[in-house]
Amino acid sequence: MSLFAIADCNNFYASCERVFQPNLDRKPIVVLSNNDGCVIARSNEAKLLGVKMGAPYFKIQHYAKQEGITILSSNYCLYGDMSQRVMQVLSNYAPRIEIYSIDEAFLDFSGMPGDLTQYCQDICKTVKQWTGIPISIGIAPTKTLAKLANRLAKKGHGGVLDWRTLVSPNKILEAIPLEDIWGISRRWSEKLQALGIKNALDLSQAEPKRMRQHFGVVMERIVIELRGNSCIPLEEMPSAKKQIMTSRSFGEKLTQFDDLRAAVTHFSARAAEKLRHQKLATQALTVFIQTSPFDTQQYANSATTVFELPSNDSAQLINAAHRGLERIFKKGFSYQRAGILLPDLLPAGVAQKSLFDSDERSIRSDQLMVTLDKINRLHGKKSICYASEIISKRWHMRQQFKSPSYTTNWRELLTIMN
Hints:
The protein is an alpha+beta fold. The chain has helices at about 10-20, 45-50, 55-65, 75-90, 115-130, 145-155, 170-175, 185-195, 200-205, 210-215, 215-225, 255-275, 315-330, 360-380, and strands at about 5-10, 30, 40, 70-75, 95-100, 105-110, 135-140, 160, 245-255, 280-290, 300-310, 335-340, 345.
């Protein structure tokens, strides 16, 4: 019989910051989006003070100062590294694991004997001790019920809840709103309520085939899973990406070509890194730029370059982005955003070459990229970068409240004074 657990980091972004700033423990914390735009994460203390997700920073700035709320810019280097550490610990406790998001992972407990509640409490204790991140775990026969068990675990039960130990699971399901069910959107919730289905219990008692007719196979599976029958398997290997986009809004509006060129150089180099990491290559590259939708003079355009052979060479992608940018750039506009899209991805090395193609250039390119990635991995990102990336810094994000990258940058290591 299938049995799943989902481990979910509690207030993950805030918890990452607290690991290296223990003075923030039990204090309200808010983390802002790119360019310090709006709220994307809150500690429990900030939630109790009424700070809403998505609230623009300028609207809560005065209130935050008044209530002593710590404001932080998003620090994705730190969060990504701490996530990797947590997942590494979790992988020691189950034969199979699916990393579902930056702060969640499903574990396969099928066939495991003993008291799994105590087992998961030990997992929580170890993760906290080894990484500093608090987690909650929900256990259930299906992934959908495990998600619900995890929600309940966060509200009590010592941070761990085994759905199978509930005395009255139907009463619990009756109290769960539709939008709290994994995979149910607000639009689906409204449509379900129009059909007379008000809560999770009602949905579990609905006819699966009827739900499939109204919503498709995903809803049918949710209904079956709510009944305790597993039909959403663990996915150990993430599916290969079909496209990659690297894009960003700028810290200030840009009017000069060189400023935009520096930005698209960085985006292209970053996209090429992702390709090589995932052992993929792209058949084309699209560069796009746009002004703010609120400007009186608006402009947006894109240009696509198709490669003769699929590539993941940073230099080739950067050159294509530069050529595309030259075609679409217009003077007189203030640009707010730019980006790179790699729309058509293939496994690296599977392309059919022509009779007259030489392997020498491809081999040299591969060797150069391997060396580039190795140096940047060993000595820190951007230890080696392309010159056109550093001709301007005006495109960089606003991050006036960013904490140091304690775990990924040698120059920002935590210093302990005697």
